[in-house]
Specification:
Distance between the termini: 40 Å
Order of helices and strands: EEEEEEEEEEE
Largest sheet: 7 strands, mixed
Helix content: under 10%
Strand content: over 45%
Number of helices: 0
Radius of gyration: 14 Å
Length: 127
């Protein structure tokens, strides 16, 4: 099965930047679809960005488009989320998720699309 392991995060000041990493292994297909989600305090888990590991244009939620950048390095089996201009409202738990590329047209934004999830890493943005 697909295995994910997140790293990065921590405490960042308002306006600062951070990069999250997720090593994704254990899949036998040519490519997978991987995404970053987050759960803000008191809110449900939401999709931030997604990308095919084999290449292609990424998808972004409007809330982070222009500030966050998702990428995948096939040589390192690693998914990245570069975050810039962070604000206190970005504080929450961030998750890496992955599954096969085809899920019968299910939206990349649906949490139920993904069978593999990381444990979640905390990102705290202070004023």
């Amino acid at each position: 099965q697909i295995i994910t392991r997140e790293s990065g995060g921590g405490s960042v000041q308002t306006g600062g930047s951070a990069t999250l990493s997720c090593v994704i292994t254990g899949y036998t297909t040519r490519s997978i679809y991987a995404a970053w989600f987050r759960q803000l305090p008191g809110k449900e888990r939401e999709a931030l960005a997604g990308i095919y590991s084999g290449g292609g244009s990424p998808n972004y939620d409007d809330s982070v488009k222009g500030r966050f950048t998702i990428s995948h390095d096939s040589a390192k089996n690693t998914l990245y989320l570069q975050m810039a201009n962070l604000a206190p409202e970005d504080t929450g738990t961030y998750y890496c998720a992955a599954d096969r590329t085809s899920k019968n047209g299910m939206s990349w934004q649906r949490a139920g699309r993904y069978s593999s999830w990381g444990q979640g890493i905390q990102v705290t943005v202070s004023s």
